[in-house]
Design brief:
274 residues, six-stranded antiparallel sheet, alpha+beta, seven-stranded antiparallel sheet, 27% strand, globular
C-alpha cells in the first residue's frame, strides 16, 4: 500500500474530471465529486477517504443543503472534524470516534451562526465488518456480486419514510414533489445519527456511499447492476456516465434532477492483509 495514501484524503469544493482509485482498509475505494451542470458557485457535495490502519478506514460523503447559506462550508467542516477524530482509529474506538466526530461537527456548524447544514453518510470499515452511519438523505448501499442488497440506508425525509413504510414505491418516491425535503441533518439542534448493526463484508461485496445527486437520478437496481461486478474504476465510470446523462436533459421515462454529486465505492480485496 502506498504510504502517501495513508493520510486522510478530503475532496472539498472540487470538480473532478474522472473517478479516482485509492487503497483503503484491505481493498480499494473509488471517489468522485463534481458540481451540477451549469453551476457557477462552489460544489456543495464533498467526500472523504480516511485511513485507520492497513485493514480499517472510514468513508464519508456530505451534501451541504442548497436551500441554506454556506452549504459547501458546512459539508467541509463536517468532514474535516470527522477526519480529525477517526484517523487511525479501528475496532470499538472507531465507532466511538465516528459518533463523537459527528456530534462535534453538529455543534460546530450550529455555533458558526451561518444557518448552514449538511446531510452526511459515513461507513466505518474494520476488517471484514462494516457499520453505516447517516443523517439526512445521503445514502449507503451494500450489494453482493450477484446483486443481492445486503444493506440499504433509509433517507431521513418524508418520501424516504413513506417508501420505507410501503406507502410509496420507488418510482413514485423518485418523482414525488416533496423529494427534495429533508427532515434530519448535521447543523440542527435535534440532529440524530442512525447507526446500522454490524454488516459482514464478503470479498466481492461493493459498498456505495453517495449524495442524493446519485440516488435522485438513478434507481437502486440500476446502481446495483453497474457496481456489482467488474473493476471498481469501471463501475465508477459507469455510474458517472449514466448520472451525467440523466442530468443533461429531462426525460419523462427517467428521473432528472441536475445536482451536485459525490460518491465513493469500496470493495475489499479477495485476500486480507496479514
Amino acid at each position: 500500500m502506498d504510504l502517501a495514501c495513508m493520510k486522510p484524503q478530503l475532496y472539498l469544493e472540487m470538480d473532478m474530471a474522472a473517478p479516482k482509485i485509492l487503497p483503503l482498509a484491505g481493498g480499494e475505494a473509488c471517489v468522485f465529486t463534481q458540481r451540477r451542470p451549469g453551476r457557477e458557485t462552489a460544489n456543495e457535495d464533498a467526500a472523504a477517504i480516511i485511513p485507520g490502519n492497513t485493514d480499517s478506514g472510514v468513508i464519508a460523503v456530505a451534501d451541504g443543503l442548497g436551500g441554506l447559506p454556506a452549504g459547501n462550508l458546512a459539508a467541509g467542516l463536517a468532514l474535516q472534524l470527522l477526519s480529525e477524530h477517526v484517523e487511525h482509529q479501528h475496532g470499538d474506538a472507531q465507532r466511538e470516534a465516528v459518533l463523537d466526530g459527528l456530534e462535534l461537527a453538529n455543534k460546530a456548524i450550529l455555533a458558526s451562526g451561518q444557518g448552514s447544514a449538511t446531510t452526511i453518510a459515513v461507513v466505518g470499515i474494520d476488517g471484514t465488518t462494516l457499520r453505516a452511519y447517516h443523517a439526512g438523505d445521503a445514502m449507503i448501499l451494500i450489494t453482493g456480486q450477484r446483486g443481492r442488497i445486503k444493506y440499504q440506508s433509509m433517507a431521513h425525509s418524508p418520501t424516504g419514510y413513506a417508501e420505507a413504510s410501503g406507502m410509496l414505491d420507488e418510482e413514485s418516491a423518485m418523482f414525488h414533489k416533496e423529494r427534495h425535503l429533508v427532515s434530519n441533518m448535521v447543523g440542527m439542534t435535534d440532529m440524530r445519527i442512525e447507526m446500522s448493526p454490524p454488516v459482514e463484508l464478503a470479498p466481492r461485496d461493493t459498498v456505495v456511499v453517495a449524495s442524493d445527486g446519485l440516488f435522485d437520478n438513478l434507481y437502486t437496481g440500476e446502481i446495483v447492476d453497474m457496481v456489482r461486478t467488474g473493476p471498481l474504476a469501471d463501475a465508477g465510470t459507469r455510474l458517472l456516465d449514466r448520472c451525467r446523462e440523466r442530468m443533461a436533459g429531462p426525460d419523462s421515462n427517467h428521473p432528472h434532477k441536475p445536482d451536485d454529486v459525490a460518491f465513493v465505492l469500496y470493495r475489499r480485496s479477495r485476500h486480507r492483509h496479514r
